Automatic annotation (TrEMBL):
The gene is queH. It comes from the Bacteria. Catalyzes the conversion of epoxyqueuosine (oQ) to queuosine (Q), which is a hypermodified base found in the wobble positions of tRNA(Asp), tRNA(Asn), tRNA(His) and tRNA(Tyr). It catalyses: epoxyqueuosine(34) in tRNA + AH2 = queuosine(34) in tRNA + A + H2O. The keyword Disulfide bond applies. Keywords: 4Fe-4S, Disulfide bond, Iron, Iron-sulfur, Metal-binding, Oxidoreductase, Queuosine biosynthesis, Redox-active center, tRNA processing. Disulfide bonds join C167-C169. InterPro entries: QueH. GO terms for molecular function: 4 iron, 4 sulfur cluster binding; epoxyqueuosine reductase activity; metal ion binding. This is Epoxyqueuosine reductase QueH. It comes from Oceanidesulfovibrio marinus.
Length: 187
């Protein structure tokens, strides 16, 4: 019986390790999709892209890099005027694209490494995936990859995969480092 094909949306190398290992172990034929217009600036995008390439080489799966669709303007237009709920729209942008590519490519299922991160809104991502799939093909494949959180960290360090300091967008970079600004302002 031919193995089932799944499109795995990936956000970065470290987050890809546990989901890809589990899917491969379960017998899925895994193709990854690197589609992330939310990663700023471009130099950061390139570092994460390289991390994904290294993980894919080690685990042996193919990656579709949507570099021609790396468009920060699309991200900013998507979240404009609704920044307080920006993560919902950011997830939606990426999962809808993953679903469309999976459908066009006749994949059996799609999913995302966003389900690995303890820092993301897990239930929101799972609900969006199901809603976007709408009960048709390709189905949204749900697993709680957070149970492998520590394993993913340790493996990414052992392999020397680039580990980012913030989620991706300029807003998250600001939130991560705003204390640096406070510190220089008060000194
Ligand atoms: S914090 Fe992360 S998930 Fe939320 S909008 Fe920014 S890049 Fe997207």
């Amino acid at each position: 019986m031919p193995s089932r094909r799944i499109l795995l949306h990936v956000c970065c190398g470290p987050c890809a390790i546990v989901p890809a290992e589990r899917l491969l172990d379960a017998g899925w034929e895994v193709t990854a999709l690197f589609y992330n217009p939310n990663i700023h600036p471009l130099t950061e995008y390139l570092k994460r892209r390289e991390g994904v390439r290294e993980v894919a080489d080690r685990l042996g799966f193919r990656v579709i890099y949507k570099d021609d669709e790396y468009d920060p303007q699309l991200y900013f237009r998507t979240v404009a005027q609704r920044e307080a709920n920006r993560c919902f729209h950011c997830y939606s942008l990426r999962l809808e694209r993953a679903h469309a590519i999976a459908k066009r490519g006749r994949f059996d299922a799609f999913t995302s490494t966003l389900l690995y991160s303890k820092h993301q809104k897990h239930e929101t991502i799972a609900g969006l995936g199901r809603d976007i799939a709408g009960g048709g093909d390709p189905v949204f494949h749900y697993e709680d990859y957070r149970t492998g959180w520590q394993q993913g960290i340790e493996t990414s360090k052992e392999w020397g995969i680039y580990r980012q300091q913030y989620c991706g967008c300029l807003y998250s970079e600001f939130e991560r480092f705003r204390n640096d600004l406070r510190n220089v302002s008060s000194s």
